[in-house]
Write a structure and sequence with these properties.
The protein is of the alpha/beta class. It has a single domain, classed as Rossmann fold (3-Layer(aba) Sandwich). It is built from eight helices and nine strands. The strands form two sheets. A seven-stranded mixed sheet has the order 3-2-1-4-5-9-8. Strands 6-7 form a two-stranded antiparallel ribbon. Strand 8 and strand 9 form a beta hairpin. It starts with a helix and ends with a strand.
């Protein structure tokens, strides 16, 4: 009887993502698919993960989806600001640790110890000082699997720093205007020190910084000892002609 119940629970868990709960209806199904692929196909024995920068605009939704869908021993959700909703939802999970800090801070990686999978969803393109490559170096020491979902630059083989384009071209290549949040002071205060991040506005993570190419991302991961285990191109990102949404899973070679 116990084995039958266990088999039923396994089937229930497997089919859960094909009929997602309304709780997750606002999440990107492509990112959900990437999580599922990581935990079912790439690392089915995985029991831990860290969601880096996973609060903004989704209140930790991908963290909570994963905790509800898989048998997780421990997990981390890291962001500069943990929203009240995220805090409230997190109380249901004894196996979740919230870290309110910039995940680029090297002290954060040390707090993780080791996790089976790291989520980097739409965050690499924001990372400067340390740059996105340095972030990957840092976290490559504490995991053997990266799940990366990122708008990727598609019109050159070289990664570009978007701010180097100047005001007009910059705003043609980001899904924001100069009147929204941090962007309205970005070029005016480019080399002023930001009051929160304590570094120049040009280097803050709240704005789009990079157009990262598949070639450069893949080469960086290879240099760190990771191989590509999954890749999918989901096509144009928003209305930006120079970016596409791409999903990656990289696993450390044994």
């Amino acid at each position: 009887m116990i084995s039958i119940q266990k088999h039923f629970d396994t089937l229930k868990s497997y089919y859960k993502s094909f009929f997602p709960s309304p709780t997750y209806s606002k999440l990107n199904p492509q990112k959900i698919a990437l999580i599922d692929f990581a935990f079912r196909n790439i690392n089915p024995m995985a029991k831990s993960f860290a969601d880096l920068g996973g609060v903004w605009n989704v209140d930790g939704g991908y963290t909570f989806y994963t905790l509800d869908s898989y048998e997780i021993s421990y997990a981390f959700l890291v962001d500069c600001e943990i929203t009240p909703k995220t805090n409230n939802d997190a109380r249901k999970y004894d196996n979740l640790t919230l870290i309110e800090n910039n995940f680029a801070d090297e002290v954060v990686a040390k707090k993780l110890g080791y996790v089976d999978v790291i989520f980097l969803f739409d965050v690499l393109l924001h990372q400067v000082d340390p740059n996105w490559e340095e972030i990957l170096e840092q976290y490559s020491q504490v995991t053997n699997c990266f799940a990366v979902f990122n708008p990727q630059w598609i019109i050159s083989e070289e990664t570009v720093r978007l701010l180097d384009f100047g005001v007009d071209e910059y705003f043609k290549n980001v899904p924001h205007t100069g009147e929204t949040s941090e962007y309205n002071a970005l070029f005016e205060h480019m080399y002023d020190v930001h009051p929160i991040y304590k570094k120049i506005w040009r280097d803050i993570p709240d704005v789009w910084q990079w157009g990262i190419t598949d070639r450069d991302l893949s080469q960086k991961m290879e240099s760190l000892g990771f191989v590509s285990r999954h890749y999918k191109n989901y096509g144009k990102f928003a209305s930006l002609k120079n970016f596409e949404n791409h999903a990656f899973l990289f696993q450390k070679e044994l």
